[in-house]
Amino acid sequence: MNLLKNHPILNVMKVFLIVVLSLLSIQNVNGRKHHKHHHGQIFEYSAISCCRTHTASLTDFGGVGDGVTSNTKAFQAAIGHLGQFGSYGGGSLLYVPPGKWLTGSFNLTSYFTLFLHQDAVLLATQDENEWAVIDPLPSYGRGRDADGGRYISLIFGTNLTDVVITGNNGTIDGQGAPWWDKFHKGELKYTRPYLLEIMYSTNIQISNLTFINSPSWNVHPIYSSNIIIQGITILAPVRSPNTDGINPDSCTNTRIEDCYIVSGDDCVAVKSGWDEYGIAFGMPTKQLVIKRLTCISPTSAVIALGSEMSGGIQDVRAEDIIAINSESGVRIKTGVGRGGFVKDIYVKGFTMKTMTWAFWMTGNYGSHPDDKWDPNAIPIIQNINYRDMVAENVTMAGRLEGIAGDPFTGICISNVTIEMSKFAKKLKWNCTNVEGISSDVTPQPCAALPVQGGKACDFPQDKLPIEDVKVQLCSYKANYM
Ligand SMILES: *[C@@H]1O[C@H](CO)[C@@H](O)[C@H](O)[C@H]1NC(C)=O
Ligand SMILES: *[C@@H]1O[C@H](CO)[C@@H](O)[C@H](O)[C@H]1NC(C)=O
Ligand SMILES: *[C@@H]1O[C@H](CO)[C@@H](O)[C@H](O)[C@H]1NC(C)=O
Ligand SMILES: *[C@@H]1O[C@H](CO)[C@@H](O)[C@H](O)[C@H]1NC(C)=O
Ligand SMILES: *[C@@H]1O[C@H](CO)[C@@H](O)[C@H](O)[C@H]1NC(C)=O
Ligand SMILES: *[C@@H]1O[C@H](CO)[C@@H](O)[C@H](O)[C@H]1NC(C)=O
Ligand SMILES: *[C@@H]1O[C@H](CO)[C@@H](O)[C@H](O)[C@H]1NC(C)=O
């Protein structure tokens, strides 16, 4: 992410490019409908890279925001057109005005910003035939819901660089109810679509948007690096199946901050492939920072590490997290056959209200892709650090289950106060096949975590490269409504 420094010659070049692009864009509107009323409303958006000089509105490409007309072709045409500009003048921006924009899947392009007005709603089509079926993810070997391929996600991108998906809190509505129904009835032919998936890409920003009612996972960056996810609201009924919030999967250098997630599955699920497919692919998720996340997940975890973690998970830093009415805080999910590792995990500053388990580690998660998994593929779980936490109304403080003959080691818990609920189990901690230490923890942890007075668990002092990336403020003047 080498941002160009302000150098006079560069400024001259920028002006030149802007002039050239303005001429190009004047040529390009030839033949397009010119709207009489140029509202000239100015919108601000933050950008991981350059501000875009070439812009267009979805309505320039025949988009109709009536909630009924399909805009699939308009999106594809608009992005196909804007994609031709490449990185010239900082790339291009597609503006989605107020309205309800029914659409099937469309693909993103590089050096590109998708910007949703705050009253813009993308409505995902419920017509299953409109969803292309693509290959399963190589690190999963098969679809998550069914054998074979999977429906492409609503917004999809692969092999891209410099992509921004943002808005003034515009909405992406997956209209997932029929998909949840088919899932429950076992009627799915292929794996349900996600709302946003970015593969094999770098320099990605996803910000200031609301995702609702996804058919399945919401935001899925995979095999990618340098990712900022910021100011996102994700809402799904707490009983909807597998509506995970944000799932960084085999990604490096990712920053998730200021997000609010209510979901029927994990709010954030950190992943890296499934059993023998994930082991063979061998791409970990590492250098992940999660800050200021608020999560409500009555049936799942605030932050899950796994269960698909066969490529490994390393160097995750989470701080300033709020959990309300959630099943567990940070949960490690793994099992024999997964292989891989979960190590160097650091969590501090965690407030929990109404939890089943404040701490949960599961070494017998099961859930294999097929019967070809390797019984000798034992996961390594080590150096897991939790500190500075308060929890209230908790049913059980800790349920820490390692694997027999493969203990989870280097667990550290310090400065944690857990207030048990009226209905709490008599046994407050249940630890098997785990080893570590504790300090200043109430109620007193299990004997597997002996007290080492005064020792605060580790949390790295340094910053990850993605934390130093500044997003700049850009503005866009909407000429079309
Ligand atoms: C989007 O990209 C995927 C993968 O490259 C491809 O299968 C699909 O056909 C593309 N969709 C469109 C509408 O071009
Ligand atoms: C995308 O990148 C991956 C990994 O580098 C590569 O295997 C694949 O062929 C690329 N796909 C396209 C469509 O370029
Ligand atoms: C964005 O919209 C959602 C859903 O309406 C709302 O809950 C959230 O508070 C909004 N966020 C901001 C920053 O306005
Ligand atoms: C995006 O959301 C952040 C909070 O996450 C806020 O500080 C910022 O002003 C918002 N930006 C825009 C352009 O709405
Ligand atoms: C203990 O944790 C609380 C937050 O729960 C924090 O405010 C306090 O500073 C921590 N104490 C120490 C000694 O780090
Ligand atoms: C405490 O947790 C129980 C579930 O265990 C819930 O029913 C109750 O409403 C919670 N009480 C408060 C004060 O949040
Ligand atoms: C404690 O955990 C072990 C291992 O999962 C389990 O077999 C046992 O039943 C648990 N004990 C209680 C009292 O829940």
UniProtKB/TrEMBL annotation:
Entry annotated with the keyword Hydrolase: yes
Q: Do you know which Pfam families this protein is assigned to? A: Glyco_hydro_28 (PF00295), Pect-lyase_RHGA_epim (PF12708)
- Give UniProt keywords alphabetically: Glycosidase, Hydrolase, Signal
One GO biological process term: carbohydrate metabolic process
What InterPro entries does this protein map onto? GH28_Enzymes, Glyco_hydro_28, Pectin_lyas_fold, Pectin_lyase_fold/virulence, RHGA/B-epi-like_pectate_lyase
- Rhamnogalacturonase A/B/Epimerase-like pectate lyase domain location is 58-138
Picking any one GO molecular function of the record gives: polygalacturonase activity
Residues spanning the signal sequence: 1-31
Q: In which domain of life is the source organism classified? A: Eukaryota
This protein's record includes keyword 4Fe-4S:
no
| Family under the similarity heading | Belongs to the glycosyl hydrolase 28 family.
- PANTHER family, per the entry: PECTIN LYASE-LIKE SUPERFAMILY PROTEIN, PECTIN LYASE-RELATED
Protein name according to UniProt: Glycoside hydrolase, family 28
Q: Which organism is it from?
A: Artemisia annua
Q: What is the lineage of its organism?
A: Eukaryota, Viridiplantae, Streptophyta, Embryophyta, Tracheophyta
